[in-house]
Amino acid sequence: MQNKTTIFFLGVAHALDHSFLTALPPVLLLIVSDLGLSLGEIGLAATFSYLLFGAGALIGGPLSDKIGEGRVVFLSLGLAGASTLVLFLNGGFLGLFVMLILSSIWTSFYHPTANSLISKRYREEIGRAMAFHGVCGSIGQVFVPSLAVFLALAAGWRFSFISLGILSMMVSLYFARMRSPEEREPDTKYDGYSVLKRRRFWALVICNIMIGLYFRGTELFLPAYLTRARGLSIELSGLAISLLMALGVLGQFLGGVGGDRIGNAKALVLESIAVTIGFACLQLEGLASALVFLVLFGMAFYATQPTTNALTAEISSPQERGLLYGIMFFIVFGLGSASSAIAGQVAEISGLQSAFSVMMLLSLLALISSLLLRRVWVVSCQGPNAACFRPDIAVNNEHFDS
User: Fold this and answer.
1) Between 100 and which of 49, 125, 294, 339 could a Cys-Cys bridge form, CB atoms 3.0 to 4.6 Å apart?
2) What's the chain look like in SS3?
């Protein structure tokens, strides 16, 4: 893989980008005890942070198209890290709230920008590059909570956030003078609204909506489900989630490599099948079925991330790459948050088992949408006037009409 230094720093940046929010849950009780807060107050601050983390991608993506990906990554990491210094000025709830909001705003710029940069710089092996980038983010989500607890116990919970902030600012310096990859200008004038006319765009949007819906509800309630519905202790439920995240690392790699070898549209169908089978197993009694779910969901869901990122590159011109990544990220991590409310209401009325039956239904809809996406991709790439874009080939805007 060419440009190994860049992809390494992007991997570290990806892990840091998630760190400000993943560091919060493990030190939550320390914050509550120190500041005399209620869980409701902390929950309110976290809710705003999660929402901004998804919505800000709609700004970061188009901004990277205009000023360059390297500059946006530099600003995203640097300003997110600097936001933690607010805790020096105010170490109470106000300082914590402002820090979480500011860091969420700036980190939200990162994902569409990094994906755009990878799709341009690693055009001939985009799946592998996306997989490496995703793996680093997953590894960060596994280890950051433990690091945050260690730092918090050693020097206080504020120190854990500030340390991550300083590291983020240091890593951002690598991207300060990075030039965007050279791309050949299209022969026709770029029209930012042309994306709305493409069938493949809408097919991918619908599929991402379904994926986001089953993911967010599962992510939030899975530990509670394993404890209440399957009888695991809280400690064992935590270990199960760690297992799922570890399998996600492998899934990221397999999704990237598999997409490069068999085609991303076909890979997405296979991944969606595995997720649906996993949810079906979860409807059965016994711990063995829950273990099968953890394996299938952990590997297959995280495999969809490099796959859908590569598919986004296939339908977009370089001039709009950041915009489309911003839209797709917001769909999965922003709009997908609705499933948390859906699953919560169902669990309140009928129990957690029913809530995961709803998640299985959503995964089935995701599978159907992946089959439709595969059909659209095949049709678009057939015939003498095929509109089949490859990110390693510069083409005219007229090729993006399908």
Assistant:
1) 49
2) CCCHHHHHHHHHHHHHHHHHHHCCHHHHHHHHHHHCCCHHHHHHHHHHHHHHHHHCHHHHHHHHHHHCHHHHHHHHHHHHHHHCCHHHHCCCHHHHHHHHHHHHHHHCCHHHHHHHHHHHHCHHHHHHHHHHHHHHHHHHHHHHHHHHHHHHHHHCHHHHHHHHHHHHHHHHHHHCCCCCCCCCCCCCCCCCCHHHHCHHHHHHHHHHHHHHHHHHHHHHHHHHHHHHCCCCCHHHHHHHHHHHHHHHHHHHHHHHHHHHHHCHHHHHHHHHHHHHHHHHHHCCCCHHHHHHHHHHHHHHHHHHHHHHHHHHHHCCCHHHHHHHHHHHHHHHHCHHHHHHHHHHHHHHHHCHHHHHHHHHHHHHHHHHHHHHHHHHHHHHCCCCCCCCCCCCCCCCHHHHCC
